[in-house]
Amino acid sequence: MGFITDEIHYDCRHYRGEKPCVYRVNCPYCIKYYPMGFRVLIFKLGAMGDVLRTTSILPSLEKTLSKTHDAWFVTWVVDPPSKPLLEQNPFVHRVWTVNDETMIRLGVEKFDLALCFDKEPRAIGLMAQCQAANKRGFTMGAEGNLHVTSAAGEDALLTGISDFFKFQRYQKSYQQMIHELVEIENAGELYVLAFTPEEKAWAKARLAELNATRRPLIGLNTGAGSVFPGKRWPAERFAELGSRLAKSAGGTIVLLGGPEEVERNKMIAARIGRGCVDLGADNPLRRFAAMLGELDLVVTGDTMALHVALASKTKVVALFGPTPQQEVDLGGRGEKIFREQIGPVMGAATEETSALQDIGVEEVEAACLRVLGK
To answer: Is it true that domain 197-372 has CATH number 3.40.50.2000?
Structure first.
């Protein structure tokens, strides 16, 4: 029996143990043996937009590891709502959510490298407890507070504890910051979001079903959620912008939003009239993302939809006020319109106190026409 167990490839990516692997061949005779190799563990639980832009680390990680290793295996720990954003990602081999099974596995499995990009207690606590030979990024100290694993992460730490540093001094993008945090050379990718041919076909069919066929397709992402209400541009201005763009750009106005924007988007659609469609508020995340990938332009605040649009290679006009615009790299895919926030910032800003109130419809329309090449 000892001879048989010695021949089992426990480190094979295809090994399942409780049942045969997909190739159904005994390990000693299998030519599909694919060792995990260098094992990497990533912690980035949420929010959705941050999870998506953290995927920029993946091509950089592969480029770095390929210089010294023949194989590597990446496990990403994430919150359930963000898990769909990592599906079909060619750089991630396993996606775990935070649950009892994950906690048990983290107590047993060993990794060569752990990277933590999340500042919240669950993530840094798991980072501190996990079994990894090399840990980089954020972690939890013995007193239960946020630490960084090395001096390379000091700027990333300061962006959380100093508003002056975050808004006035620090001028690097989020992608630049996380690469410096974990000391990995930046390969230059901003996002990694992949769709299957079936998902792309569904998105095109759904837009056609909604009669969103006349180009350009201009998405208006009218909400921002309840956590950061200051990221929300007034509904009346979205309505006026849609009406103006329907004439000046032609095409179709496509309203985007979630459950909190149902009534808001009904009002906007009624104001715009013909040439306006509403994508609805109940689209699964990946289907919503696939439809954004079919649009020609998205007008949005600093929200998850901004990052989904950029990751889908869709052009954007992005509105910034109470959040730091320098953190967001558009990668040449659009324009930013920015007003300096006076008073409460981030989640403390309301729609009424937000600097977005100072951004006019004419300015946004002009930016849209430039980005569309009109």
So the answer is: yes
